[in-house]
Structures are given as C-alpha cells and as structure tokens.
Specification:
By secondary structure, this protein is mostly helical. It has a single domain (13-143, 191-222), classed as Rossmann fold (3-Layer(aba) Sandwich), CATH 3.40.50.300. The chain has twelve helices and four strands, in the order ααβαααβααβαααβαα. The chain has a two-stranded parallel sheet with strand order 1-2. A two-stranded antiparallel sheet has the order 3-4.
Length: 227
Amino acid sequence: MRGETAIGEASACYLWSETAPGNISARFPDAKVLMILRNPIERALSQYAHMLSFADARITFREYLNAALRSNSTRIGELYPFLRFGLYYEQVKRYQSAFAKDRIQIHFYEDFSRDPRSVLRATFRFLSVDTDFAPELSNRHMEALVPRFFLVKNAFKRLGLWDAVRCRLPAGARGRLRNVAFQPRHAILLEPADRAKLAEYYRDDVNNLSRLVNRDLSFWVDAGDRR
C-alpha cells in the first residue's frame, strides 16, 4: 500500500453468484459495481477454449455443450455453471436490487473491442480516478492457448519437461515453441448448428436483459457475433 484511496477486486464469478450482491452490499454499501457483459455465446466458446488449455484430451465444443445441456448437476465443475454464467438477466437484476443505480456501471464487450479508450474513460470517470490516464493496450493478457498435440503436452507435463525446457530458452525461442505447441484462441470456430442451439438457449434471457438495461442486444442471438 502506498496511501491509495481506492481499491478494488475483480471476479467474473461475483456476477453469477446469488449471494455476492447482498454480501458485498452489507459489507461495503458504498461500493461501485462495474460490469462488462459479453455475448453469452462467445463467452461460452471462450470458456471452452480455456478448458482445452488444461484438458487431458481434446473434446469438441459440441460434445462439451451437449454434456452441459444433459447434466443436472449443480456441483461447480467443468459443466456447471458453464452455460449459466451467460444468463445475465437475473444476475444484473440482483445487483440492481442491492445497490443504488448510480453505484452500478454496465459496459458491453463489443463497445470495448471497438473503442476501448472511450470505455476506459467512462470507467475512470465512474470510479473517480484520473480520466486522462492512458493505459498500455497493445498487449493481450490471459488468452487461452489450446494444445495442438494433447499426447505430447501431457507427456511433457507428466515428466516435468515443459517448464524445464521453457525456462532454458531465450524469449524469442520460447515464443516460437509456444506457437508450435499451441494454437491461438481465434483458431477455434463455432459451428452454425452449435451457435443456433446456444442462441435458442439464451434468447429469452437476452430479450429480458435488453429491456432491463434499455439496450437492444438481440444481435447476440439473432445474427451471431458482430465484433
């Protein structure tokens, strides 16, 4: 600590949690709540890519999706709350019930992708911090890396070779090794049939959310990803 007057915490799970809004409000009644909502279909695909980054074997998105749809378990794991994370309507409503309107700011991933500095300026203004601060935006952090060869990845991990090899290589060589061993997130594409199934799953919730936040979000489920 260096005498800062404002601190914060970030977790996507706080939005989904049924108890977090009330607990936060009870402990920090003047807290400011910031949300960035993403097309729930694209959010699900992103979580799938993240799952693959540490999975022992490849599973297709369709297999993963169908397993989640069939599952009745409410035990937190790979299949739950995989789909329910994207049901934003009740999640946002809980925070609106727990906090005053001026304590909540909602942004959308499409706006941030299109004009990140404008979204950041609005965020800084909401948080009462320096709106002229210009953060570095050229680097992307925590992007999922999907193994190209799961058997090789598992063998290296089991034998403890991956970290040993990576640590002994110069930065440029580590980057080339990473490109050989992993494929980028954007290499994973969503089949039209899977997108249509997710659109039907989320349609009612998206329509309810649109009315709640007074913004038409129907393109999330009607026309796919428009980033």
